[in-house]
Amino acid sequence: MTYVTNDREGSMPQGTRERGRPRSFDTQAALDRAVEVFWRQGYEGASLTDLTAAMGISRPSMYAAFGNKDDLFRRVVARYAEIDMAYAREALEQPTAYRVIESFLRANADALTRTDRPAGCLSIQGGLAGGSDRGRIARFLAESRLAGERALAARLAAAVAEGDLPPGTDPDALARYVTVVSEGNAVHATAGADRASLHATVDFALQAVPRRPGVVG
């Protein structure tokens, strides 16, 4: 799961410079194109030339609309969390803990292998390579993923309190387990694993999810 956080060394930009001439381009469409570039090339691999060419704008327009590369990337991760990770929020609304986990892992496997998106996960791919930022982007992405894990843990803690999960279930450890499965599938998807293979992994993972005796699903 990827949630946007406000940790900064440069927190999420609150917007951009609004003064000057009105923009002559669709900022959301440009942002979606930037998502593709960062997803395929990572933060370090995506040059300003790559980004502005894909977005169809000049560097001054990019700076005016989105800030610098760091700011743009944070906007991209927010867009990714809003659009591409919507299924994670929807999974939390499922009525049982088992269905929360199953819904998330199944939808995640599908998302990782979409034909209209790069394989894998932006939040994993984006910060794999270290560089001149001294690990700042990698830490930002790790914190974003941790925020999603905490949201899942909170939902599972509620399931324990409600008796939906067996007494003694550790919601933090269970949420971490689910996160490890989803992140591992992301790495394998990037390496070329197909959708069926990812779902086979999910099949095994679901066998480890604790359930209250007598409860199915």
TrEMBL record:
A Pfam match: TetR_N
PROSITE patterns: HTH_TETR_1, HTH_TETR_2
Coiled-coil ranges per UniProt: none
HTH tetR-type domain boundaries: 24-84
DNA-binding region: 47-66
Superkingdom, natural source: Bacteria
Record InterPro entries: DNA-bd_HTH_TetR-type_CS, Homeodomain-like_sf, HTH_TetR, Tet_transcr_reg_TetR-rel_C_sf, TetR_C
Listed name of the protein: TetR family transcriptional regulator
